[in-house]
């Protein structure tokens, strides 16, 4: 080997060594910055861990979720922002929980019978409907009961009789007695319970505990009831018509992206949010269009408290079956005449 070749080889080795040291140094800086963010997260969400080992494990999970949030941010086709949330130290398995397919489904599908022109926007919150965002807690998968209760409350409020029905009664008195409602269920299970019990108590008389208890005898008369429930057409135009002319409905979606969702209109690619793995039920309260980008969206109420997302709500792209939103559109039916229309 010539002296020149030897010199070039030594210079190349030195450059690689310098690059490696720079990469390691940057990695240490990134880790230190992420640890600072993690400590802020622990304070914000009142987290503490039983040992240094568990703290390190949760920090590594936190780092993985930050990386996932950055990937979602890079691939989202809407306006959504992703980042640190209450669930940033959860593994994907802890957040998603067990998924299962429904054993029974509503047999009735409501036909489209609306002859009026569909309004461009709709937001029932402007009429004081569905404004009470609640928190199901971190240890009870009761989204199905919260969505059903909010659906019923909304329909009664539209009729002019505001209600706040008991979520806990749905969990304790679920018609499938062998199941723990904190392990998940389907929204039509809740509606079947309401029909069989002849209504629900108020949340004040039967408060939420965040765990399954013994079904209690009602104090006095039911404060709200329903006459039936039904599946809507699995079509987003039909869903918008029903929401505009009748009121909020429940939908069941794949909640994967909600772990890192902050705000904005979520429109992930199908690879990031499958439309065939629905596992979280929420209340659909309206729809709109982001004018400057002409992005149509749904407005949805979650049950993770008012500090999550957009004051307890979130928006998803409308018209592309985002995260399977059109698969299970279900609503309670209340036969009380009303002239109310969804505010634009």
Structural description of this entry:
There is one protein chain. By secondary structure, the protein is an alpha+beta fold. It folds into two domains: 3-75; 81-333, Cysteine proteinases (Cathepsin B, Chain A). It contains seven helices and ten strands. The chain has helices at 3-44, 52-75, 92-96, 143-158, 167-172, 187-197, 236-245, and strands at 81-82, 122-123, 228-231, 249-253, 261-263, 265-266, 280-290, 295-301, 313-317, 330-333. A hairpin with a 4-residue loop joins strand 7 and strand 8. The longest helix is centred in the first third of the chain and has 42 residues, at 3-44. It is globular and about 95 Å long.
Question: What attributes does this structure have?
Answer:
Cathepsin B, Chain A, 2 domains, six-stranded mixed beta sheet, two-stranded antiparallel sheet
**Which residues form runs of ≥5 with pLDDT under 50?**
22-26
What is the helix tally?
7
- Kindly provide the radius of gyration, computed on alpha-carbon positions and rounded to a whole number of angstroms: 24 Å
Q: What global shape is seen?
A: globular
- Structural category is alpha+beta
- What portion of residues belong to β-strands? 5-15%
Fourth-tier CATH superfamily name of the largest domain: Cysteine proteinases
End-to-end Cα distance, whole Å, is: 80 Å
> The CATH topology of the largest domain is what?
Cathepsin B, Chain A
Using the 3D structure, state the CATH architecture of the largest domain.
Alpha-Beta Complex
């Amino acid at each position: 080997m010539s002296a020149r070749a030897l010199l070039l080889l030594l210079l190349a080795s030195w450059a690689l060594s310098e690059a490696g040291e720079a990469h390691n140094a940057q990695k240490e800086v990134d880790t230190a910055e992420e640890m600072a963010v993690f400590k802020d997260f622990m304070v914000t969400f009142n987290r503490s861990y039983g040992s240094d080992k568990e703290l390190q494990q949760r920090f590594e999970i936190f780092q993985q979720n930050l990386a996932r949030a950055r990937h979602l941010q890079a691939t989202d086709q809407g306006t959504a922002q992703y980042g640190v949330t209450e669930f940033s130290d959860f593994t994907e398995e802890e957040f998603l929980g067990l998924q299962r397919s429904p054993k029974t489904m509503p047999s009735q599908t409501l036909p489209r019978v609306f002859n009026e022109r569909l309004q461009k926007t709709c937001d029932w919150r402007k009429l004081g409907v569905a404004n009470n965002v609640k928190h199901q807690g971190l240890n009870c998968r009761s989204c199905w009961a919260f969505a059903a209760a909010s659906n019923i409350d909304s329909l009664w409020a539209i009729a002019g009789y505001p209600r706040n029905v008991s979520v806990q009664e749905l969990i304790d008195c679920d018609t499938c007695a062998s199941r723990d409602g904190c392990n998940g269920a389907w929204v039509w299970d809740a509606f079947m319970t309401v029909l069989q019990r002849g209504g629900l108590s108020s949340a004040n008389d039967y408060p939420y505990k965040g765990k399954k208890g013994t079904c209690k005898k009602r104090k006095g008369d039911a404060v709200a009831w329903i006459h039936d429930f039904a599946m809507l057409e699995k079509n987003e135009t039909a869903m918008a018509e029903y929401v505009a002319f009748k009121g909020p409905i429940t939908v069941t979606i794949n909640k994967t992206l909600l772990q890192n969702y902050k705000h904005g209109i979520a429109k992930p690619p199908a690879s990031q949010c499958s439309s065939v793995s629905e596992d979280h039920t929420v209340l659909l309260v309206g729809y709109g269009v982001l004018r400057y980008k002409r992005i149509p969206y749904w407005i949805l109420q979650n049950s993770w408290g008012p500090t999550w997302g957009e004051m307890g709500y979130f928006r998803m792209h409308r018209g592309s079956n985002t995260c399977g939103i059109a698969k299970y559109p279900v609503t309670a039916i209340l036969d009380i005449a009303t002239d109310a229309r969804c505010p634009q």
